């Protein structure tokens, strides 16, 4: 009986490990695009691959076009009704940190991070094409005053961005890993930071 339990536990552990590994392999590495000899075409292809993260609900839910953030794998309007507020951290009396604490709270499924907030309205991506998101990311007047090096730093190392791969609850993590996204963004910048047409 004990060995049967051990086998089931080992099988479950292997399944979890395999699932985690599958997520880690879910984004193609920059080297996968090396056969594209035209730098602009390669750059667009790299950004399109990174776009699998940028257009994933883990990113879009916090980059809404309205003042109301989204939630869930289906990107439904946040419940309870909350709004962006003047500083992107919620309205007075209903701050993001009222519910969103320093870490995910698994008993209730509420996600958390010490810097939890919605992206500024100038960084709204929801409903936009990948080409429009790319142009917005490159525009310092719409990206928080960042140059391309700062954009790379943000996507590759910012811990709030990193939450997308550790969302807790029943939320589907963003594809790949934050390191893989960072590598794609670095290669995109190096190849000229060209944007997809649409």
Describe the structure.
By secondary structure, the protein is mainly alpha-helical. It has one domain. The chain is 40% helix and 4% strand. The protein is built from seven helices and four strands. Helix 2 packs antiparallel against helix 7 and helix 5 runs antiparallel to helix 7. The relative contact order is 0.18.
Please provide a brief summary of the model.
With 198 residues, the chain is mainly alpha-helical. The protein is 40% helix and 4% strand.
Mean model confidence by pLDDT: 89
Task: Tell me the β content.
Answer: under 5%
- Give the overall shape, derived from the CA principal axes: globular
Poorly predicted regions are 5-24
Radius of gyration: 19 Å
Classify the oligomer: single chain
- Terminal CA distance reads 59 Å
The largest beta-sheet arranges its strands as 1-2
Number-wise, the strands total: 4
Number of domains: 1
Helix content: 25-40%
**What count of helical segments does DSSP give?**
7
Question: Which sequence of SSEs, written as H and E, runs from N to C?
Answer: HHHEEEEHHHH
Outline the biggest β-sheet.
2 strands, antiparallel
Summing up helix and strand content along with how strands pair, one would put the structural category as mainly alpha
Supply the key terms:
single chain; two-stranded antiparallel ribbon; mainly alpha; two-stranded antiparallel sheet; 198 residues; 4 strands; 7 helices
């Amino acid at each position: 009986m004990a060995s049967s339990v051990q086998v089931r536990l080992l099988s479950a552990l292997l399944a979890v490990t395999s699932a985690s590994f599958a997520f880690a392999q879910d984004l193609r590495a920059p080297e996968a695009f090396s056969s594209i000899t035209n730098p602009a075409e390669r750059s667009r292809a790299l950004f399109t691959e990174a776009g699998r993260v940028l257009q994933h609900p883990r990113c879009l839910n916090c980059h809404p076009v309205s003042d109301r953030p989204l939630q869930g794998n289906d990107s439904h309007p946040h419940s309870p009704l909350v709004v962006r507020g003047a500083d992107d951290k919620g309205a007075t009396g209903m701050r993001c940190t009222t519910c969103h604490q320093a870490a995910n709270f698994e008993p209730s499924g509420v996600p958390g991070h010490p810097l939890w907030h919605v992206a500024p309205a100038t960084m709204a991506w929801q409903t936009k094409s990948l080409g429009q998101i790319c142009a917005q990311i490159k525009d310092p007047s719409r990206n928080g005053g960042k140059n391309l090096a700062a954009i790379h730093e943000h996507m590759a190392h910012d811990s709030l961005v990193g939450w997308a791969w550790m969302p807790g609850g029943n939320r589907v993590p963003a594809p790949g890993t934050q390191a893989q996204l960072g590598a794609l963004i670095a290669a995109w910048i190096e190849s000229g930071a060209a944007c997809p047409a649409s």
